[in-house]
Design goal:
By secondary structure, the protein is of the alpha+beta class. The chain has a single domain, classed as 2-Layer Sandwich (GMP Synthetase, Chain A, domain 3), CATH 3.30.300.30. The protein has three helices and seven strands; from the N terminus they run E-E-E-E-H-E-E-H-E-H. The strands form three sheets. A three-stranded mixed sheet has the order 5-6-7, with helices on both faces. A two-stranded antiparallel sheet has the order 1-2. A two-stranded antiparallel ribbon has the order 3-4. The N and C termini lie far apart (50 Å).
Length: 139
Amino acid sequence: MWSTPPGAWTRTNDLARIDRDGFLFIEGRVDDVIIRGGFKIDPRAVASALRQHPRVADAAVIAVPDQRLGQVPAAAVVLADGRQDWPRDDMQAELQAWVRARQAPYAVPVTIRSVDALPRTPTMKIAKGALVDLLKAQT
């Protein structure tokens, strides 16, 4: 039987941080990384960049299959104040430019869609399967 010595760390695929008070927060998983043509993209960093835009209240980024590159990032955003008056093509172009100014060019989502709310699990994590379905329905 395998066991970890007392006080030792166990390596997992979880991404975590410890705050200044010593609390551990699980932020995501290493296997959530999007690999676009050999480049690694952290979907949390791209979503964070999108959330910094003044017209975006929330965002999530996931990998979608791409025949040439393997995977590419796609994003869903919840607009601030629930406003849906931003034309889809204008919104996508502006948000792609916003991300391009803050992230590597390969991290820019190929598609960005506005949704009323991000699908979440009971523990408030993004429900990735439901998000994929939501993005497909809007394409």
